[in-house]
Each structure stands twice: as structure tokens, then as C-alpha cells.
Amino acid sequence: MRVSELFRKGQVWTIPNLLTMLRIVLLPFIIWSYTSLHNTKLAILLLAISALSDVLDGAIARKFNMVSDLGKALDPVADKLTQVCLVLCLAFTHPLMWYLLAMCVVRETVMLILGLITMKRINGVFSAKWYGKLSTVMLYATGLALLIFKDMPSWLSTCLIVLCMFCVTLALVLYIQFHLDLWRRAANKKEE
User: Fold this and answer.
1) CA proximity to 103, closest of 167, 155, 38
2) CA 15 remoteness from chain centre
3) Where are the domains of the chain?
4) Comparing 53 with 128, which gets the higher pLDDT?
5) What Rg value do the Cα atoms of the chain yield, rounded?
6) If phi over 0 gives left and psi between -120 and 50 gives alpha, with beta otherwise, what is residue 123?
7) Predicted structure pTM score
8) What is the DSSP letter of 10?
9) Which segments within the chain are labelled E, that is strand?
10) pLDDT digits 0-9 by tens, 9-68
11) Is there a contact between 131 and 79 (Cβ–Cβ < 8 Å)?
């Protein structure tokens, strides 16, 4: 699939895609409110708006048949950018988050490469799997818990971050397996 095919007429300016774009636009404001204004409540509010728009875009896309290849490609980008934004903000107060940030960057780099190869070999874009969604939920839950409960005991924050690291690693391993299976099936079809 070519990148230009993602931008087919009628598939760009849909409500789900606009909600996804809103999530991307909110990112600088989340960072600004947390790091410059030191306003945790505003950062949490903006993250909540972002999370709500994430839930709504998928639900609307499925219910009203507005699923598009652009949406399938853009939604995980918005997810990953939001996750990196959240982890980056928290890394300044929780040093272990720097390791989580590095893991997220590695995972997303590998996922981008795998996704591009799969697009070329299979000619399709695939939606997120349960393990990717689990990783996303854990990142948001951990991030919000660290934002809301600033006085959380350090052993508990460490446990949450380590659990989050486990989920990120699990998602990466399972996505690699998923892509390799797709490539094998595609190769077997060509041989038939």
C-alpha cells in the first residue's frame, strides 16, 4: 500500500480522524501545562480529554462505518506520541521513567519498521491487538496514578513502572511474532 492511498477522498476529514488529530494537537499543551506551568490538574484534564477522544474515535469509526486506512495508521501514532509525552513529563520526577521512555522508543521504532515492511508485503494496515491495547492502558494508568498521587510510596511507583515496562516488552514480543506470522502466510500464499 502506498502512503498516498491513506489519503483517499472522503477518508481524511471524518469525525474519528479529526478526534485523532485533536489528540496530537493537545500534546504541546499537556507538556506546557505540566513542565512550564507546573499545573498537574490542567495536565490531567488535557490527558482525560485526549483519552476520551481516543475512546470516541474508535467507537464512532466502528458504529458509523467510518473506519479508514488513514485512521488505522494515524490512531496508533497519536497513541504513541501521547504515551511518549506522558512518560517524558514524568521522567523529570521519576528517574525510572527514563528507562520506560527508552523502551517505548525502541518498541515504536521496531513497530514502525515492521509495519512498513508489512504494508509493503501484505498491502494492508492492521488495527491494534489486545496486547498493544493492554500496554497502552498500563502506560496511561501508571502515568495518571503518578500524576494524581504525587506522594505515593516509592516502592509502589517503582512496582507500577516495572509492571508497565513488562507490558511494553510483552507487546513488542507479541507484535514481532504477529508480523512474522503474517509474512510467513504471505510467502506461503505466493508459493501456492
Assistant:
1) 167
2) 19
3) 3-191
4) 53
5) 18
6) left
7) 0.78
8) T
9) none
10) 556 788 999 999 999 999 999 999 998 999 999 999 999 999 899 889 888 988 998 888
11) no
Torsion angles phi and psi, residue 101, rounded to 5:
-60, -45
Going by C-beta distance under 8 Å and a sequence separation of 6 or more, which residues neighbour residue 184?
none
Using the structure block, give the residue that is written with the C-alpha cell 508497565.
Answer: 164
Give yes or no for a contact between 163 and 142, defined as CB atoms under 8 angstroms apart.
yes
pLDDT at site 9: 54
Question: Which among 57, 61, 70 is positioned nearest to 8, based on CA atoms?
Answer: 70
The grid coordinates of residue 174 equal 507479541
Cell 495536565: give the residue.
43
Q: What is the DSSP string of 113-134?
A: HHHHHHHHHH----PPPHHHHH
**Can you read off the three cell numbers belonging to residue 113?**
519498521
- In angstroms, the Cα distances linking 97 to 4, 94, 103 are 37, 6, 10
CA–CA distance, 28 with 163 (Å, rounded to integer): 27
User: How far is 118 from 124, CA to CA, in rounded Å?
Assistant: 7
Q: Give the dihedral sign, CA 104/110/30/125.
A: negative
Start-to-end C-alpha separation, the chain: 22
Residue range 3-191 forms a domain whose CATH class is mainly alpha
The three cell numbers of residue 128 are: 491494534
